[in-house]
Amino acid sequence: MSATSFQLISTLVRRETAMVYYDEAKDYLVEARLLPLAAAAGFGNDVDAYIKRVTVDPVERRRAVDALTINETSWYRDLSPYQAFTEHMLPRLLETRAASRHLRIWSAACSSGQEAYSIAMLLDQHLPAGWTAEILATDVSEAMVARVATGRYSQVEMNRGLPATSLVKYFTRVGSEWEVVPQLRQMVRARSLNLAEPFLGVGGFDVILLRNVLIYFEASMKYDILRRIHHHLDHDGYLLLGSTETTLDMPAHVADLWRTEPLGRVQAHRSTSSTPLASPIGA
Ligand SMILES: C[S@@+](CC[C@H](N)C(=O)[O-])C[C@H]1O[C@@H](n2cnc3c(N)ncnc32)[C@H](O)[C@@H]1O
Fold first, then answer.
1. Is 175 left (phi over 0), alpha (psi -120 to 50) or beta?
2. Measured from the CA of 209, which atom of ligand 1 is nearest?
């Protein structure tokens, strides 16, 4: 792949997703991901010609951008956020939400859905009778959103962090894949959403998981997302970031919105506001 093609495609990925993950040192990675698409589109192994097509063809552009997102994920990834959810957040939310008996959780940047379905399994196990919950799972990649809606996983994916008891309880075998049972699928709603753009129509949440995605953005975009997501978390809700994602260097106007609270082995982000969320705004 030529340097010009690399520049073209990385600028395009950045424009569409805000991801600045790919630098020249990773051009082999970009090429490896685009080669199958180039072949399928009739360009053989001419990735340069394929990238030219991508710049003028919106359908192919969507495919290329999808192929270049980093979708690394697993069940109960890092474990401690999920322990904090069950042991600290859920007991408190069961007290504070006793009137509505309803919880709303957002898995923002959900990849293929393991994060959203891990939470769904915990809710199925720990939510008292009479309570309901909905999990919004969003990602910029339409291919990922489609996968969440389908709820099907390969054996290799199942082997990444899912306890055997959960496999038996929450999945049925469909050919060579495993499908999430309807009782969990009913809890999860998948839709595409670009974190770099206004969060239109998503509403307010008790818990937001924004994990392992901010690392791909420039600092200014990261802070802008942390500022805008604040409008969608209730005043006593919880925001969970990835274990390597810190907010230490936030500018004052964003830092003032958040405080951290240790919950077991994780630092949850919580709002500094004491006013319940009235109506979340779109940006
Ligand atoms: C490494 S995965 C993290 C998945 C999951 N949150 C976890 O921690 O396991 C990052 C996800 O962020 C998504 N992503 C990248 N840029 C995005 C954007 N601008 N808006 C929404 N999602 C984005 C990618 O498509 C990918 O699925």
1. left
2. 6
* For residue 121, pLDDT beyond 80: yes
Hey, what domains does the chain have and what are their CATH numbers? 3-68 (no CATH), 80-271 (3.40.50.150)
CA distance 280 to 234: 9
Q: Is 17 in the pocket of ligand 1 (CB under 6 A)?
A: yes
Task: For ligand 1, pick from 139, 207, 239 the residue to mutate: most ligand atoms within 8 Å of CB.
Answer: 139
Query: What's the alpha-carbon Rg for the chain, to the nearest Å?
Result: 20
Mapped onto helix, strand or coil, the DSSP state of residue 94 is helix
pTM: 0.95
Task: Give distance in angstroms: CA of 139 to centre of ligand 1.
Answer: 6
Share of the chain above pLDDT 70, in %: 98
Ligand 1 centre to CA of 125 (Å) is 26
Q: Which atom of ligand 1 is nearest to the CA of 72?
A: 1
Q: How far is the CA of 100 from the centre of ligand 1 (A)?
A: 31
In contact, 117 and 171? CB cutoff 8 Å = no
- Which of helix, strand or coil describes residue 120? helix
**Which of 282, 278, 213, 203 is CA-nearest to residue 243?**
213
CA–centroid distance for 238 within its chain: 15
